[in-house]
Write a structure and sequence with these properties.
2 copies of one chain form a homodimer. Chain A has 6 helices and 15 strands. Chain A is an alpha+beta fold. Chain A has 2 domains: about 80 residues, Gcn5-related N-acetyltransferase (GNAT) (Aminopeptidase, 3-Layer(aba) Sandwich), CATH 3.40.630.30; about 140 residues, Nucleoside Triphosphate Pyrophosphohydrolase. In chain A, a hairpin with a 2-residue loop joins strand 1 and strand 2. Chain A is elongated. The termini of chain A are far apart. The N terminus of chain A is likely disordered. Chains A and B meet through helix 2, strand 6, strand 7, strand 8 and strand 11 of A and helix 2, strand 6, strand 7, strand 8 and strand 11 of B. Chains A, B: It holds the Pfam family NUDIX. Chains A, B: This is Nudix hydrolase 6-like protein. Chains A, B: It comes from Artemisia annua (Sweet wormwood).
Amino acid sequence: MMDQGTMENGVENVQRLPATDDEFGGVVVEMKEHMDSEVFHTLLKTSMSLWKLQGKKGVWIKLPIYLSNLVDAAVKEGFWYHHAEPSYLMLLYWIPETQNPIPGNASHIARVGAIVLNDKREMLVVQEKLGNLRGVWKISTGITHEGEDISVGVVREVKEETGIDTEFVEVLAFSQHHKVFFGKSELLFLCMMRPLSFDIKIQETEIEAAKWMPLEEYASQLSPQENGLRKYITELCIAKVDRDYSGFSPTLVTSYCDGNPSYIFLNKGDLNKQS
Amino acid sequence: MMDQGTMENGVENVQRLPATDDEFGGVVVEMKEHMDSEVFHTLLKTSMSLWKLQGKKGVWIKLPIYLSNLVDAAVKEGFWYHHAEPSYLMLLYWIPETQNPIPGNASHIARVGAIVLNDKREMLVVQEKLGNLRGVWKISTGITHEGEDISVGVVREVKEETGIDTEFVEVLAFSQHHKVFFGKSELLFLCMMRPLSFDIKIQETEIEAAKWMPLEEYASQLSPQENGLRKYITELCIAKVDRDYSGFSPTLVTSYCDGNPSYIFLNKGDLNKQS
């Protein structure tokens, strides 16, 4: 688990925690094996002295949840929490006196809302079993999974909640909301979807009811003072069906992050228009 | 710190952790005062037995970082990490045998990229000091802060990096990239910006150089095989300037989350077109 003491410049190095350098002048300690918390504390103190002498910047410690006995020692040495996932906790210490430039944890949930219209001008609507929209006919919505494309997540959500197969057409609009979930923000993408099947089979655990509702009936539920998303869902839907509204549709692009394919969503009609 | 034992149905309740009910049938333990970890462990065991009997669902424990001595006991009782911020760790236990329906932590960073064009068809470009785009002339980009609107974050980033004041016009396109930062995803919003000042003053710590570059010169940097974002930045820019490309512009809407004003970004020209 620990590096053996070695001779360097004629001085015997003390034992320290195993660490790898990162590309920003910092080190990453990824703990895997069980260790007594006092042994860990001693090694951490020694290692930190060494890294400070070496001019290291950020020091990361990744502790799997089965090493929760080591959290307290790291905090006592001045580390703070950077982020956590169910299986691990990531702690951080910034050595330089300059301000820590490391970005915080992820800040947004990506939610999708599905506007599914059949060719009878009917929209797919659901009533949820829980939450503050109980009893309201609304579009199917859900949170995208980690690593899931928006265009994939919205197809999955509609299928799960209503049993309807759909094809993603485009993003009609998006909205941003803050302090939605533990202080985090949300980006909600309203997606135009083409239905590929029509027989509804609801998800019993979360959905009370689902049906195809005439667009005009959906619109008639709104009060004249309505200025929420439901107003825009109605207007976008009518503009799309009757007036050729252009949203953003996906085009494959090489990601600047890792060179893998990603989607860029843009107004394809306008981009390809001839001048 | 703990509830006193009380008489209920003629039976004396044992001491338990202070908790409040949440709206989903669960309880929230928000620890604030220092406590010995063994005392906490005992109280947690007793409390969990009680909450199981009461049919509670999710049990949340929020531990401020100064109570890191209690993390290990909670994990030993079967809690896992839900999320962490610099100052606290949130742990979760799902009592029912059904699948835990609680959404995970935030999954996305919201990044903004600023396309700032002056009326000489010149684009504001920068070279960064660090990272894999060193030496490349690129648009100014940055990560929005917690709770910050996209349209505000992009103005701030341009100002910080180049000293240029700008006004947000619209989102020309957005792209989604996965596994960008500790497994998290990124949504990148390419924003059209109108410059309100023209004298560049760079941020010395992060930016090597900044200048106004003719659009055609920016385009000429790209190889014919280029299929990354830089190709679309060029094309979107030319489509916007020469062909009236419509992106998504912001309109105030009442948030469905909390009734506060939020922005919905949509194709305003198309939405307001007469049929």
